[in-house]
Write a structure and sequence with these properties.
Layout (H helix, E strand, L loop, with lengths): L6 E7 L1 H16 L18 E5 L5 E5 L1 E7 L39 H10 L20 H14 L25 E8 L10 H7 L2 H16 L4 E9 L4 H15 L4 E8 L8 H21 L2 E6 L24 H15 L12 H6 L10 E5 L10 H6 L8 E2 L13 E7 L26 H12 L5 E6 L3 E2 L34 E2 L1 E7 L3 H13 L3 H4 L10 H16 L12 H7 L1
Parallel strand pairs: 1-4, 1-6, 4-5, 6-7, 7-8, 11-12
Antiparallel strand pairs: 2-3, 9-10, 9-15, 11-15, 13-14
Helix pairs in contact: 1-8, 4-6, 6-7, 7-12, 7-14, 12-14
């Protein structure tokens, strides 16, 4: 195996989490190298993927993943997948009596899924001049390598913004039959039987749902040699926040020595929202955050919302992205790119940091909620150097909030993990001619890690932090949305010359990304604001059905008190928690 591989099991709980997860796994799949003679990459794929074998003896390589969603959420995707088919017709009828057949119209597939079907079957796309060699009639790594390379060669500009209804509409990889778990008690669509409240989700994790999850966990865990922990992606706005709270509690009870890194996902908007549902969202955010933080090594909200309160500001604007915040297909792609960078430290082939160490460095003194920030893309001009790029960001940090928590700007932070990914082929140090005076301190350093560390230290003096540089970028293959401005070249770097107006630029095929994961005093007022918003609501009066399946009112009030105490853990060293402008307005 070479270097030690510490495996990770990923859980995706809820529809938006599966949107983010689908983009995430598409990114991981695009980075896979199938050439046995190629040098090993910087990231160890076996951390996330598992090798298996079909009934026909073909080798497969699939995510070590459990994805939970509601009835009606899969559309064209079969729950058991297609990798491990036995060749028998599942619709074959052996009953000799009378049979009544009810026909139901199947969901239609978009252009991307239709092309995947053609490639899987060995057909040649008419609109592309392919190599005549057909895709082999086998499943797994070899076939997927052929599919991947051919999809890349099509250079087809899939525009799926109008056709993506569910996450499987842009899933490009095969999943293991044990991956998808459908909760039949609640519906994905329609008004009836919706999983809307925290207590509904808590109550789910018992009986058959619990047994099914435990069986799936045991299957993936028992084949691990060095399990380092779990990545949990969980929806925050609906009842999945309650389910995630129970799932993380179960993981903590059963695998307490492992890392449990929980990412709470929230879209910018919901298509069918109402004022009452927005109140439910606020309560679910508050309860889910405090419970999952208690049960995890750390908890990080991930969202492009301007805030989780009742009056959020506008979503963050990234200088070189043209994304639609209201489209889940767009916003989830941005968060998946950030997650691809943030999680690098525990996925490295060499000198990786185990999950529990990664979390312990940030979640100190009860501060188990952390905040994420990202520069997507990292603003670097093609052919320039890292000192030049960072020198252009001297006055203001290049990243934007990815947790709805703006930085305070005081240079104080309890702990920070910074990752810069994707500067392959670019200079990490200054290319000064002999005898030239370095224009800045950054230009005098002779190591990329030192350049980045010096920049971070200048903005956060006397703050513990770690930096990680990975040269390989995030590879963007179809159907990742082309949400990038024309100022970017194919590798995601800024072009030296201005783009020609009305000229269609080449697709961006990779992207440099800078991310920061912080334990910051800014989380104190942010959590306090969330606490005040939830405490101002009396669910017995305005939303009596919210508590119908739990929690009890006393448990609800106790959870809000825990949220208040959690906010108090982020008081800064100078005495007293930094106050937000909203707190000052309330006092006035």
């Amino acid at each position: 195996m070479g270097s030690l591989c510490r495996e990770v099991v990923t859980l995706q709980l809820g529809h938006y989490s599966n949107f983010v997860g689908t983009h995430w796994w598409n990114l991981q799949d695009a980075a896979l190298t199938y050439d046995p003679d190629a040098p090993p990459g910087e990231l160890q794929n076996d951390v996330l993927f598992r090798e298996g074998q079909t009934f026909g003896g073909h080798i497969t390589y699939t995510p070590r993943l459990i994805a939970m969603d509601l009835k009606g959420s899969l559309q064209t995707l079969r729950q058991e997948g297609s990798l491990y088919e036995t060749g028998k017709d599942p619709t074959a009828i052996t009953w000799e009596g009378n049979v009544m057949v009810h026909k139901e119209s199947l969901p239609t597939k978009n252009s991307f899924l239709l092309d995947l079907d053609k490639l899987d079957k060995g057909e040649i796309l008419a609109e592309v001049d392919f190599d005549p060699t057909p895709v082999p009639h086998c499943s797994g790594a070899v076939a997927m390598e052929t599919v991947n390379s051919r999809l890349e060669r099509t250079q087809k500009g899939y525009r799926l913004e109008g056709s993506v209804r569910v996450w499987s509409d842009f899933l490009r990889i095969h999943l293991h039959p044990r991956t998808i778990s459908v909760i039949h008690e609640y519906n994905h669509d329609g008004e009836a039987h919706r999983l809307e409240a925290f207590g509904q989700g808590e109550a789910l994790l018992q009986g058959s749902v619990l047994e099914d999850l435990e069986d799936r966990l045991h299957f993936f865990i028992e084949e691990c040699d060095y399990l380092q922990g779990f990545q949990v992606l969980c929806d925050l706005a609906d009842g999945f926040s309650g389910l995630g709270s129970k799932v993380t509690e179960m993981l903590q009870d059963s695998y307490g020595g492992r890392g449990i890194l929980t990412w709470g996902l929230a879209p910018v908007s919901h298509p069918d929202t109402t004022p009452m549902k927005e109140l439910y969202h606020l309560l679910n955010y508050s309860l889910g955050m405090v419970h999952m933080a208690n049960n995890s090594s750390f908890f990080c909200p991930l969202t492009l919302k301007g805030g989780l309160g009742r009056r959020p500001t506008q979503p963050p604007s990234f200088p070189h992205l043209n994304y639609d915040p209201s489209l889940w297909y767009h916003s989830s792609s941005v968060l998946a790119l950030a997650l691809d960078s943030i999680t690098v430290p525990y996925r490295l082939r060499q000198n990786s940091t185990p999950m529990w160490e990664f979390a312990d460095a940030l979640a100190v003194s009860g501060r188990k909620v952390v905040a994420a920030y990202g520069a997507l893309p990292f603003p670097m001009t093609q052919g320039s150097s890292l000192p030049d790029a960072l020198g252009d960001c001297t006055d203001a940090l290049p990243w934007k909030p990815l947790s709805a928590c703006p930085e305070l700007g005081d240079g104080h932070c309890f702990g920070q993990s910074v990752t810069l990914k994707g500067l392959e082929g670019q200079s990490l140090v200054s290319q000064l001619r002999p005898g030239m005076q370095p224009p800045t301190q950054l230009h005098s350093l002779d190591c990329g890690e030192d350049v980045l560390a010096s920049y971070i230290n200048a903005h956060y003096p006397a703050t513990p932090f770690s930096v990680q540089l990975v040269s390989s970028p995030s590879k963007l293959t179809p159907p990742f949305p082309q949400i990038f401005s024309q100022s970017l070249g194919p590798q995601g770097f800024l072009q030296n010359q201005a783009p020609t107006p009305n000229k269609r630029s080449c697709a961006v095929s990779s992207l440099p990304v800078l991310t920061s994961l912080q334990s910051s005093p800014a989380l104190g007022p942010w959590l306090s604001e969330l606490h005040r918003g939830a405490s101002a609501l009396d669910p017995r009066r305005i939303a009596p059905s919210f508590l119908s399946q739990g929690p009890e009112l006393t448990d609800f009030q106790e959870s809000l008190e825990q949220l208040r105490l959690l906010a108090g853990c982020y008081r800064n060293d100078s005495g007293g928690m930094m106050r937000s402008s909203s707190e000052e307005d309330d006092d006035g």
